[in-house]
Amino acid sequence: MTSLIDSSSLSPIFSAMTDTANQQAVSNTALNNGLTFLQNGKYQQAVNAFRMSISYNADNGTGNNKTAYNYLAQAYEGLGNDKQAIAAYQQSLKLDNTQDTIHVALANIYIQDNQNDAATKELKAAMKANSSNYVAPYTLGQLLVKENQPTQAESYFRTTIKLDPNDGNAYYGLGLCLDQQGKASDAIPVLQKAVSLNPSSAAAIYELGNAYYKNDQKDQATSQITALQNLNTTEADTYATNLTNMISQPKITTIDTTKSTFNTTLGAVPLLALDTDLVQPDASKEVSVTFLFDSEMDAGSVMDINNWSITKAQGATINKDTGLYDNGAYRSTDTAVSPLPSRVMYDATTQEATIYFSLRQNSFSTGTIDTSRIVFTFNGKDTSGKTMDSSANQIDGFAGTAF
């Protein structure tokens, strides 16, 4: 019988495959070559080498093949081929399902591809395979936080901390999920620990500032902005800006004297100095004051007269910034000012509010007023629902700026 194969044309390496030991040697060589290609970023050559190693592995068992499949998956990841990387890891796990680190590696690809259910399954398998693996519970905790399940995430971060009590990232994760559960006061000491373990973690510093803000500790929150700025990195600067925007509250910045008909800079003067209409006994005149805000304000809130108040300055014992109405020289001729405006208008394009109120002359035309020490207060909110900054929601002509 004539052979259909000319043995003389066989390559030396193929001829060597007739010997099991030589097959294994070629498999080992291919595996080593693939690893070199992988380390040098030559991913397609690595893929070819690892496939050869798997193909020529003599015993077709869990030894070289398991390792080759794991490296093959990494090479496919380098090529951006997640589908083939997943298939390679799955083949490796079929050979040995106790590889906890491979379960985690596979889970990370699933997370990247938004296959969160599959990722959860792999991370739980990793924890079952090795209860000492602290990366798996940490990763699962992060995944659950991402899915807005902070309560479920909490237990996994606590597990991570038990396994690795010096891992600042685990404390950060726990603090993050506590904060998301509305437990800012509980989150603060945890996040402080995270920052102490990893003082260069911009994310942890930001989250600590966020927790301080939610716990009404504005000064401490502000200090975290400084800490972020001191890191002097692009990431930290972004976090600093975000935290600044978060904790900032709307402020009155100034009185627009060019648009106001009530002159807040005159001081103690006769009423008729404000407007000639007030020269007549018992005359009434509507006047206005225009205020500039530093934020886009809620128009309905601004135009609600009940959010405003108009008072006479009561001196340093009440507020050091206001001055004392007429320097304490109260006169029988002083005109009364309504505690509420009669109406309010808001211009969203300029972020200015104009309040209107009336002044009434007395029956002798001798009425007086200290215009610079009439205090205007606003306690409304901006378009994002933030209430006024209590340190800048009042202003009068004496101070010149909000207080």
Describe this protein's structure.
- By secondary structure, this protein is of the alpha+beta class.
- It has 3 domains: 8-96, Tetratricopeptide repeat domain (Serine Threonine Protein Phosphatase 5, Tetratricopeptide repeat), CATH 1.25.40; 134-247, Alpha Horseshoe (Serine Threonine Protein Phosphatase 5, Tetratricopeptide repeat); 252-395, no CATH class.
- 48% of the residues lie in helices and 11% in strands.
- The protein has 15 helices and 9 strands.
- The protein has helices at 12-16, 20-39, 43-55, 64-78, 82-95, 100-112, 116-129, 135-146, 150-163, 168-180, 184-197, 202-214, 218-231, 234-247, 299-303, and strands at residues 252-255, 268-270, 284-293, 308-312, 343-347, 352-360, 368-370, 374-378, 394-395.
- Strands 1-3-6-5 form a 4-stranded antiparallel β-sheet.
- α2 (20-39) packs antiparallel against α3.
- The chain starts with 11 loop residues before the first helix and ends in an 8-residue tail after the last strand.
Which structural traits does this protein have?
about 400 residues; alpha+beta; Serine Threonine Protein Phosphatase 5, Tetratricopeptide repeat; 4-stranded antiparallel sheet; disordered N terminus
Integer average pLDDT: 92
Q: What is the structural class? A: alpha+beta
Q: Could you name the ranges where pLDDT drops below 50 across 5 or more consecutive residues?
A: 1-11
What radius of gyration results from the CA coordinates?
Answer: 37 Å
Spatial shape: rod-shaped
What strand order characterises the main sheet? 1-3-6-5
Number of strands: 9
Strand content: 5-15%
Describe the biggest sheet? 4 strands, antiparallel
